[in-house]
Amino acid sequence: xxxxxxxxxxxxxxxxxxxxxxxxxxxxxxxxxxxxxxxxxxxxxxxxxxxxxxxxxxxxxxxxxxxxxxxxxxxx
Length: 76
Known about the structure:
The protein is mostly helical. It has one domain (2-75). The protein is built from 4 helices and no strands. Helix 1 (2-22) packs across helix 4 (66-75).
């Protein structure tokens, strides 16, 4: 099931796969959140254990966390 969901995500990109992601397992969402957190740290130059990562994501980069992003794009 996980491999199928990831394959659909890879093929259709962000737009169509959000409906698939909204019903995905929490494990998949957590993995995607870890990737987004790593990207935030890379872009902003912050360390792994520094505080305020969510503030940087929301205020500076204007990124939604993965569950909020899936919910937002599924409502569009």
